[in-house]
């Protein structure tokens, strides 16, 4: 109970109300002490009226008047004359004089606290102004023990009342907060537990219903999170199924390509100059396809294999990619250009770098050919003190907003109908394995530019 939100709220509310009551209690006790002494002055003044009516009163009546007023003597000052109106023997000397005509709140609180802490019975002189302007002043002498007892009794009653008010207030606040806040929070927790049992079930996504603004905002945020998580789980399930299918296909395709590789070895021995020129490229393409199948199988078991980093001549990799793409272009009016400094080298895995550049150029080539307009794809390279930069620019139609939003997400970033969107996702993963990155620099109706960055630092190896 005490560890629950409701229990802690109940305890804290009780404590805070008690603190507030104590802050009221201190000045209340001071005011009670002042009123107590003023009351004794008024009663003493009333008792002295008897003397004003009859100059001579017997000792018994005088003693009774002083006893009823709870004072030892009464002194009146009228017309600048100080007159002892009533008097009786005092048990001890006067220890303190209290002037009620000019007392600040601080002094009243200080004196009240000191009186509560003083247990000895003392005789004090109290001076005040008579009621209804009946003279200049009135002073009495009185004992402090009855006043202290009355103050303690009043304080205990105030504290008891404060405790009752605190408990009632805390209980009412407890009920209100339990209904308005704790119950909706428990409802959200219950929804979360229900959803956690089967997160792939979209029917378990919470429907916001709370009337408290903050709780409803929490429910709406939870709904958004659950919706995204359910979609991600379904996508991962599809990816797992696709991965299994691709692994099976890659296994059989690798065997087929291995057989084709044996045939290309014989083609290389042909004396036909065209065949001799094209055979090495065919062998290279089939070899890359075999390696890709093997990598896909490895990915299906764990993850994309790490890169084997060496210093690679970028021009050689780029020429292989451009030659392959030129065959796909055929007679279409699309120019492929390379602006790479002679002898330009980067630290990378040659096969993985080939796949990344090939994916980017293939995407650009397909976008331009689908548009039907002539175009150009240009690859350039430069270096800085800490990195190599490879820029790929095209004059295609640009990327739509949806593709830009999910550019490197599998199955979401494709622009071409029937595309999977895996190319850029795979390329980004390969570059992260190099310690580098792929960025979309800009895209518009005039064209698109991607930037591949590879670090020069030893930490990239």
Write structural notes for this entry.
Keywords: Coiled coil, Kinase, Membrane, Phosphoprotein, Transferase, Transmembrane, Transmembrane helix, Two-component regulatory system. GO terms for molecular function: phosphorelay sensor kinase activity. There is one protein chain. With 461 residues, the chain is an alpha+beta fold. It folds into three domains: 167 residues, no CATH class; 106 residues; 156 residues, Heat Shock Protein 90, CATH 3.30.565.10. It contains ten helices and twelve strands. The strands form three sheets. A five-stranded mixed β-sheet has the order 2-1-5-4-3. The chain has a five-stranded mixed β-sheet with strand order 7-9-10-12-11, with helices on one face. Strand 1 and strand 2 form a beta hairpin. Helix 1 packs antiparallel against helix 4 and helix 8 packs antiparallel against helix 10. The radius of gyration is 49 Å and the shape is rod-shaped.
Please indicate the count of domains. 3
Secondary structure category: alpha+beta
Subunit arrangement of the protein: single chain
Low-confidence stretches: none
**Biggest sheet, in brief?**
5 strands, mixed
Annotation, overall tally of beta strands: 12
Order of helices and strands: HHEEEHEEHHHEHEEHEEHHEE
Gross morphology is rod-shaped
Spatial sequence of strands, sheet with the most strands: 2-1-5-4-3
Average of per-residue pLDDT values:
80
Provide the β-strand percentage band: 15-25%
Residue share in helix = 55-70%
- Rg result: 49 Å
């Amino acid at each position: 109970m005490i560890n629950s939100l409701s229990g802690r709220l109940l305890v804290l509310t009780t404590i805070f109300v008690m603190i507030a009551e104590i802050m009221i209690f201190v000045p209340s006790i001071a005011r009670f002490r002042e009123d107590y002494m003023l009351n004794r002055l008024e009663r003493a003044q009333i008792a002295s009226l008897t003397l004003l009516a009859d100059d001579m009163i017997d000792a018994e009546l005088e003693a009774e008047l002083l006893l009823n007023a709870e004072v030892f003597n009464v002194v009146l000052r009228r017309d600048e004359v100080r007159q002892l109106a009533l008097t009786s023997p005092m048990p001890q000397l006067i220890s303190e004089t209290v002037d009620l005509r000019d007392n600040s709140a601080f002094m009243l609180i200080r004196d009240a606290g000191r009186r509560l802490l003083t247990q000895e019975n003392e005789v004090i002189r109290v001076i005040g102004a008579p009621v209804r302007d009946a003279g200049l002043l009135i002073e009495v002498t009185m004992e402090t023990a009855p006043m202290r007892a009355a103050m303690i009794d009043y304080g205990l009653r105030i504290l008891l009342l404060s405790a009752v008010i605190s408990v009632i207030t805390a209980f009412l606040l407890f009920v209100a907060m339990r209904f308005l806040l704790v119950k909706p929070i428990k409802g959200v927790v219950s929804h979360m537990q229900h959803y956690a049992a089967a997160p792939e079930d979209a029917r378990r996504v919470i429907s916001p219903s709370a009337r408290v603004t903050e709780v409803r905002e929490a429910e709406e945020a939870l709904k958004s999170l659950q919706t995204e998580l359910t979609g991600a789980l379904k996508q991962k399930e599809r990816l797992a199924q696709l991965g299994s299918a691709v692994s099976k296909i890659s296994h059989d395709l690798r065997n087929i390509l291995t057989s084709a590789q044996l045939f290309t070895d014989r083609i290389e021995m042909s004396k036909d100059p065209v065949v001799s020129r094209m055979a090495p490229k065919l062998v290279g393409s089939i070899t890359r396809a075999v390696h890709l199948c093997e990598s896909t199988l490895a990915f299906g078991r764990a993850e994309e294999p790490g890169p084997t980093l060496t210093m690679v001549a970028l021009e050689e990799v780029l020429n292989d990619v451009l030659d392959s793409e030129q065959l796909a272009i055929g007679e279409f009016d699309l120019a492929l250009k390379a602006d790479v400094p002679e002898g330009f080298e980067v630290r990378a895995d040659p096969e993985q770098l080939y796949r990344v550049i090939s994916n980017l150029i293939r995407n650009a080539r397909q976008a331009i050919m689908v548009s039907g307009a002539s175009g150009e794809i240009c690859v350039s390279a430069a270096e800085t003190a800490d990195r190599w930069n490879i820029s790929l620019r095209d004059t295609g139609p640009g990327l739509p907003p949806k593709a830009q939003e999910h550019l490197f997400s599998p199955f979401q970033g494709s622009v071409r109908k029937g595309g999977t969107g895996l190319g850029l996702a795979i390329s980004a993963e390969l570059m992260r394995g190099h310690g580098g990155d792929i960025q979309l620099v800009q895209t518009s109706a005039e064209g698109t530019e991607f930037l591949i960055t590879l670090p020069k630092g030893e930490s990239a190896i």
